[in-house]
Fold this protein.
Amino acid sequence: MRAQVLVVGAGPAGAELARQLAAAGVAVLLVDQLADLSQAAFSSAAMPFASLERFGLPAQVVASRWRGWQLLGPAEQRRCWRASAPIGVVLDFGALRQWLADQCRRFGGQVQLGLRAFDCQPQGAGWRTLLRDRQGAVREVISDWVVDASGQGRALIGPFTPPPRAGEAGRDRVQGVGVEWLLQVPLGCWQSWSDQLSFCLGSDWVAQGYGWIFPMAPGQLKVGVCRLRPDRQLPPLGRVLEQLLARLFSPEERQASAVLDRHGGLISSSIRRRDCHGQGRLLAIGDAVSTANLLGGEGIRHALSSSRVLAPLLLEAIQSGEPLPLRQYEQQLSQRLGWRWSLSGRLARRTWLGLTGPKADQRLSRLLVGLEPRSAEDLAALLFDYRFERYGLKSLPYLVGMR
């Protein structure tokens, strides 16, 4: 099989890149190990309206709109913020992946599913990539360029990370695991959670992590839990999720509900984003270069952004025949993510990894008290744009670890 560009991974980063390349007339082949892109739809998938418009996403990938926030915990505390109009959307992650893949096909690109890439070696001026289908047969793809969009597993680019700087050993890369259920619930139950993003915070809810309840289509909720740097001595996340549901829903609501899908996933991201971004004509994108933000486990917007950075550079390299300027790619992606990126990562590490008992809960409560006078729009700027300065000088001791 021959392709000008092989993109491995049909998540938001890979499929968006393939869509852009195909629209520019590049012969692109997009492959993914899933046989059905609606499977394994594990993602918080919340974003502000500005991002929906920036990436030109259609209404068909939107599951719901939201205008408020609800923070439950620590313990039985409850805080709510509401705006007068919707602030953002929750995406149907499976529908998003399918739409991006369909767009790639529409512009002339090829999409093949059920193929897992496991080896990639230079061959002449290009690359030889081996893929295994679901029956175990091995296929070969020869391409001029290969883009690893396989996520934190980095199937082709490999687990390469530069040696840590002094004082960073074991701290720069943070890993976690999440479990999420798609629930069919009574309409009255759904209405009590609709129109807002809800989070469960505190060690008695989820130690070293947090829980969430997001509205989907009418009568459907996504409920999940995530824990950073999993501790084997802590209860399994499946049990934690069941306990969370028992606290959130009445016995009658639980009895009338059904689990439509269970899925989970890993998150692994470097706070300083010092991953290898490429080796010659083998490039990496999305979560493979740590675009998943650790503060809220958010990755879709940043994965899409990474494709918007790489696409013009790759198109220029294809047209000119010159090597892609990897350093320029790294710098432009860092600029797109912004200087607040590493700050939000440090805040995530301090908040979630230290959330193990009453003292940490008290520290978190003090931080949340400072948010109470703010508006729902301010919280969106804080959590999506990392506008920590809006919280004020009181946040600085917490952010730098002084309290």
Q: What stands out?
A: Residues 396-403 have pLDDT under 50 and may be disordered. The chain has three domains: 2-45+92-160+275-337, 67-88+171-269, 342-399. Residues 300-320 form the longest helix (21 residues).
